[in-house]
Amino acid sequence: MGKSAPASIPPTDPDTGGGPAGSTEEGTAPDPDADPRTESADAGSPRAALELSGVTKHFPLRRRNTVALDGVDLTVEQGEFVSLLGPSGCGKSTVLRLLAGLEEPTTGRVRVHDRPPAALVNDHRLGIAFQQHALLPWASIADNVALPFRVAGRPVDRARVTELLRLTGLEEFAEARPRQLSGGMRQRAAIARALALNPEVLLLDEPFGSLDAVTRRRLNFELARIWSEQRITTLLVTHDVEEAVLLANRVVVLTGRPGRVRHVEHIDLPRPRGGRLTREPRFHEVVDRLTALLDGDLASRAGADEGATAQTGRRWLRRRGR
Ligand SMILES: Nc1ncnc2c1ncn2[C@@H]1O[C@H](COP(=O)(O)OP(=O)(O)OP(=O)(O)O)[C@@H](O)[C@H]1O
């Protein structure tokens, strides 16, 4: 799957995106945003870009040992956009940190393009954007976007920086400092920076988590458009079910801690996806189904916690001979 922009993809318009229900029916023009699983089927089996197999991650902490992940198998195919959902503390960020080479699995295997993550990190082929944008406050937005070139010891490709500023709608703010930008603009700059070196893989950890709902929604549409143009293999960690569904080819739901893959939802909604689609019943059906799944997990966890509290209470009473 190439990373170059297919010429026929129109920009996502929040109010016209979504397209008619029949747009993917037989006889119509091929959908340039079709699920990469379908596209790669012709060329043989799809290539896994990201792979976790049998991954367990323990965090030993003094006398306590936190089991963050337990036997996680997860594959993201080349050019695919996968969203990772799950209750707080279930290990979503740990999955991303393993793929970014920031953590080692306790057991199991983590591969990015069939190699240990560190190999891609060293080659600067991995783009990462986290909730905290971490822009350099004293540098201009253009210099912040250009930073990966400097970190990699490469000459700054100014044309690429300009292209990214255009892609993220920040051309007019190239010379501004981060403090002169809104929160949403800073997150866009962080995404532009993550894209600077044409990464083969994009890891996004709640990149819009700190934004208000309206800005977040707008940036979701923009990210959908950018992904359509660039087709970079992307793994997004989010708490927002609508965001997960709007952007992804697949949504993977983890169980509460320790995280295991609980459910995989293929999102067959048409692209481009915009505001119109988010008002359609078929979008809400998927969102409601996944929300119910997460609510169920929370409820069973609360039940388990209550049970554990009652057990601890009984033990305490026994110790005191009551
Ligand atoms: N460096 C660490 N040391 C000790 N424990 C850790 C460390 N990193 C994560 N954990 C623990 O691992 C578990 C999973 O954490 P992680 O941040 O991956 O969850 P998450 O699903 O991303 O959470 P949230 O949705 O709240 O951001 C948590 O119980 C957390 O306390």
What does this 3D model show about the protein?
- This protein is α/β, with parallel strands linked by helices.
- 37% of the residues lie in helices and 20% in strands.
- It has helices spanning 36-41, 92-99, 117-122, 141-151, 158-167, 183-195, 213-230, 241-247, 281-319, and strands at residues 48-61, 64-77, 81-85, 107-112, 126-130, 201-205, 233-237, 250-254, 261-266.
- It has a six-stranded mixed sheet with strand order 5-6-7-3-8-9, sandwiched between helices.
- Helix 4 (141-151) runs parallel beside helix 6 and helix 8 (241-247) crosses helix 9 (281-319).
- Bound molecules: adenosine-5'-triphosphate.
- The site of adenosine-5'-triphosphate (ATP) has 13 residues, from strand 1, strand 2 and helix 2.
- One of its GO terms (molecular function) is ATP hydrolysis activity.
- It comes from Streptomyces sulfonofaciens.
- Residues 1-51 are annotated as: Disordered.
